[in-house]
Structures are given as C-alpha cells and as structure tokens.
Amino acid sequence: MKPPNLRRSALVAGAAVWLLFFSVPAALAEGPETAAFPSLISALRIEGPMDFCGESVPLEDPEVRENLEKELLLSVWDRAQIILWIKRAGRYFPYIEEVLRRNGVPEDLKYVAVVESAMRPHAGSHKGAVGYWQFLSSTARKYGLTVNRYIDERRNIYTATEAAVRYFQELYATFGSWTLSAAAYNMGERRLEAEIKEQRVHNFYRLYLYEETQRYIFKILAAKQILADPARFGFHLSAEDLYAPRPVETVDLRLSRTVGVRSLARAARSDYKKIKDLNPQLRGRYLPKGRYTLLVPPDAARGFASRLQAVLQQEKNDGSQRVYVVRKGDNLSSIASRFNVSLPSLLRWNRLNASNPIHPGQRLVIYAD
User: Fold this and answer.
1) Which domain covers residue 159, as residue numbers?
2) pLDDT (tens digit, 9 = 90+) per residue, 12-45?
3) 2 in a domain, yes or no?
4) Rounded CA gap, 139 and 285, in Å?
5) What is the pLDDT of residues 299-336, one digit of tens each?
6) Model's pTM, two decimal places?
7) Chain centre distance of CA 246
8) 140 and 107: one domain?
9) How many angstroms separate the CA atoms of 258 and 123, rounded?
C-alpha cells in the first residue's frame, strides 16, 4: 500500500474534526496558562459506562477499577509525556482514523499506537519490535512490510498502519473480541489461545495473563480516557499547539543503480534531513537498485524523475559518487585509502563499523569526501 499524495489543504480538512477537541477558552488563549490542574484524586473518579471498541469495560468489578486507576495515575503523573501524546495525535490520528474507518474496524484501535510507541517512528523494544505499531520483523513481513538492511517500513506510518489493520482483522476473526485481539497483539495469538483453552474463559477481564498483557489493555483504556477528554485532566491545548500533519507527495522510484539519499534530496529540491524525516523507513544513506516509494515535499513530485537523472549524470561526470564492488583481499582501510576518503566516512555511508567483515562482491557507496 503506497501512501496517498497529501497536500496541505487536504490535511487541514482531514484534521479539523479531531482538532476541535482541543479548543480552549478565550481567556486561556490570550495569555500564558496558569499552572493549575485537577488533583490526581479527581482524575480517578471514573464514571461509567466505559467501553473499548464497543465492548463494555466492567467497572463494577473492583479489580478492574483498581487496575484502570493505577494506569491512569501513572500516565497522568507523566505530564510531559501526555502533552507529547496530544501534540503528536494532531499529526497522526487523522490518518490512522481514516484507515480504520475505511477498513471497518473500531477507531479505538488508534490508542494501541499511543501505548506501543507514543507515536514515534524509531521506537524500539528489547524484543526487537520497531516503529509506530511495534512490529517484530517476522510479523511485519507476514503482513506485507519490507524489512531489510535498507528499508524498514515499520517506521512508515502509512504502510505500518495498513499492516496493523490487517493484523487486527485476522485477530478479530480468531477471537471474536477486539479486547482479546488487543491482548493477542501484545502477547501473541498462540499464547492467548492456549490460556483461553487452559482457563476455559473467553473474557479478557476474567483471564489470568502475563502481567505485561494484564496491564496492556488498561494502559490503552487510560490513553483513551486522557486523549478523548484532555481538559478533564488539566491539559488545555489549542489547535495551534498540536503538531500538524506533514503535507507530502509520493514518487515511485525504479532505480537501475545504487543511489544516495543526498542525490534523492537534490532531485526533490530539498535537504537530506527533510527526506530522511519524511521517510523514516530509509535505514541508511543510499538505496540499491530496485523499486521504492518515496515521500517528498509538496510540488517536488512533478519532474522528479528527470531531475534525478540529471543529478545522477552530474555525479557520474564529476565523480562525486561511485559504487565499489569489494574484491578478494580488500579491507575497509585499504578501500578508504584507495579512494582518498576517511575511514569514518566510509563506515557512515555504508552503515558499518570497523569490526564488520566485508566480503567479495559486496557493494560499497563512496562519495567525494
């Protein structure tokens, strides 16, 4: 699934409804906000009914209420993190909500991305999960994401969200419950199926699960409570305070040779940093030959291919970029010396470290240092 062309006008329109949640009284907008916010005790006064994806949360169960209160307290206490949640939601929720609606799955699933990664593209876990939706590489590939040395689409909000929706749809087909599907998303469907079979219970709130998963659903519920009504918890942000969706266009690339990111940036009439920020799935400083979809700033898609060809021809003529195929007997120091570049630069360009072995046939990109 390639991301859509998103222009500023369309993004603003798409985000408008969500931004209305954060309008503030005129008195607050006119000057600095005072450091007054509700007490933690009042934040715990949860009134029902409450649901997740339309499935009732049994607040009448004292244990359920206690678990939810704990996660609310821990979340609200970290006020800086909550403010970042709210600000990032302004950028990402409009797109995530649109994908969820288009696929007929509940909007509440957007809070999974909040709990999983705080909506950060480069978030990672000690288990190897990466990106907005914290996919393991094996799961990511199963649901159509590219994960290799050069591209990691777990870090791309567009492709990763589409993959997460497909995963949730399969989980729901298995469990028939969105709450259990979210639990399976955290702990794995096979492990959850085994617990359901062992305990003979098909209700998340009555299952004894690993502590991480037991807390997981309540973290999502806490995020929903806070982000659905931030003012209740003392967070008064205006629409101008939020991070706006980035207006972008897409270009489809068919590269017949290795191309550096800085060449792509020149063709986009942009900066290296801008291209990397718009495309967090790009893991290194170049792309080998192949097909890719690249996000570029507005008005950069038209004529991109011809500009790229011109850039590559210029680099070929002036020798500012080349690709070296490693030969038998080569080492990194000898290659750096041969091309009169520094070893640290050679390592950086190719995402290597000095202890990495190189092998004949390996392709290294080399720029004029």
Assistant:
1) 8-241
2) 445 544 544 444 444 444 555 555 666 667 677 7
3) no
4) 26
5) 999 999 999 999 998 887 776 777 889 999 999 999 99
6) 0.82
7) 14
8) yes
9) 28
Are 276 and 134 within one domain? no
Question: Is there a single domain that holds both residue 85 and residue 202?
Answer: yes
Structure-block tokens of residue 160: 């990763």
Angstrom distance (rounded) from CA 106 to CA 104: 7
Residues 41 and 65 placed together within one structural domain of the fold: yes
Determine how many CB atoms are found less than 10 A away from the CB of residue 106: 17
Q: Whole-angstrom Cα distance, residue 226 to residue 14? A: 22
What angle (nearest 5°) sits at the alpha carbon of residue 290, between those of residues 285 and 293?
75
Q: Which residue has the tokens 């991305």?
A: 113
